[in-house]
Amino acid sequence: MGRSEGNRVSRRALLAGAGVVAGGTLAAGVVVPAVTAAEAEAFGPVRIRPGDPRYDGLLRGNNFRFAGRPEEIRVLGSTDQVVRAVSEAARAGRRIAVRSGGHCFENFTADPAVRTLIDLSGMDAVGYDAGRRAFSVQPGATLGQVYRTLFKGWGVTIPGGGCPAVGAGGHIAGGGYGALSRRYGSVVDHLYGVEVVVADRDGTARTVVATREPGDPHHDLWWAHTGGGGGNFGVVTRYWLRSPGTGGVDPAKLLPPSPAGMLECVLAWSWEGMTERAFTRLMRNFGAWHEENSAPGSRPAGLYAILLLSHRAAGYFSLAVQIDAGLPGADGLVSAFVSAVTAGTGVRPVAETRRTMPWLHKMTWPGTGEAGDATARRYKNKAAYLRRSLTGEQLATVYRNLTDPAGSASSGMLLIGYGGQVRAVAPEATAVAQRDVVMKAVYYTTWTDAAEDAARLSWLRAFYREVYAATGGVPVPGEVSDGSYINYPDVDLVDPKWNTSGVPGRTLYYKDNYPRLQRVKARWDPRGLFRHALGVEPPA
Predict the structure, then answer these.
(1) Which positions ≥6 away from 237 have C-beta within 8 Å?
(2) Where are the alpha helices (DSSP H) in 343-435?
(3) Phi, psi of 279 (to 5 degrees)
(4) With b meaning 16 or more CB within 10 Å and e meaning fewer, what string describes 159-181?
(5) What is the mean pLDDT of residues 522-535?
(6) CA 94 to chain CA centroid, nearest Å
(7) Quick one: pLDDT at residue 27?
(8) What element of type H or E holds 47?
(9) Largest Cα–Cα distance in the chain?
(10) Of 12-21, 240-249, 433-442, 487-496, which range is least confident?
């Protein structure tokens, strides 16, 4: 049942060269699945059940904390195969979960209630669709594959994440962002269309193509995939990407240009002798710079930075800065940023490196993606959006927890630069409601031994709750915080034990866009076939 490399090349060539859309039509709307030449050569379908020697090896995604026990794992290679699998599962009453890259922080695809796990990793074609004048990306393609193909073929890119092993399927549906987002916006700001397999109330599956065209009768389904998160409305089998406002037929002008090289600067500080005053000043400076330098289209919006605040047990923490080396004055902008972040701290970094490397190398190396891929297979992450720097009390809380002896070397917090062009889009234009923000915060812990689960989770939950103690333990939208990012899912936000704010967890993710997402849910998944712990729920 395996797929040869020859088949892979042939399928991609057909998709890229002829603008083939699975279903045999280029018109927006409902598509009757058809077997094209490309589909005929597609991988699969493969059905794997308990007892098959492959079964246990396919149960887990990236986070080994979770493993389900589905009745079947369907490894699929075409839209037509997905239609058949969804119809069969729906009519048999089997709950479905869909996995592309498998990098979900929670157990959405490994829930014990899931009976059919659909694996889309075999659907990984990336190419140019001449009929739509847009780039076609299947959900199983990793970000590394997307970057390589777009770069080699046309010299363009998308402002996606820096973990090359992440699947495009979930990354795009949840919004998508990365090192170029301050300059070019979120990935979904470039999403032209989406092909989705949906199920009607009687269980009949069909393929729908929805675009951002205002007159498209399925426009709401497109909108729901611009940050509504995966696993909510159907099975995405293809994305089309083209930047708004672009014209003509030259593919090289339809997405942002790939940088030729990335200038990277990394600084590291030792925890030895690090005072609370110096540590919190670094954090405050980082936040203040982003408050003042995150206007859309501004020169500083080309700079992307992450403050990696490792726990004291790690011995050090660091700052990583990236910028397109071809931007005028790039090196000077980095120097000014470093000076602003370190001003008044009285501490010098123990190491500083600055180098320029080819952009493609930077985005596809080392290729292991999330931390769980290589050094630890169990983890828990929590997150928040920030409109401005954390308060003085919150900064002191961060310092206290990162110097707490109960913590570990593989735990900590990240402050990630955001804003810029992201802020040029209205909150209601896409499902990503958090547009007036300048940073993201991520709280994390990783480990290898299941015996550590309880202690690791307890430490991280207490840390997060203490940072947001003034707002019920969660980042309630306000002057400082603005909820959280659905691609960093955290089921604690819907648990009243951890969220005592009175603000529903789903509101923290979607804010005022949630009622519209509920209406889309009711229209396109009337059977409630697609659901998970943080899933969009139909209106009451």
Answers:
(1) 22, 79, 82, 120, 123, 138, 139, 195, 196, 197, 207
(2) 359-364, 392-402
(3) -65, -50
(4) bbbbbbbbbbbbbbbbbbbbbbb
(5) 96
(6) 27
(7) 33
(8) strand 46-48
(9) 67
(10) 12-21
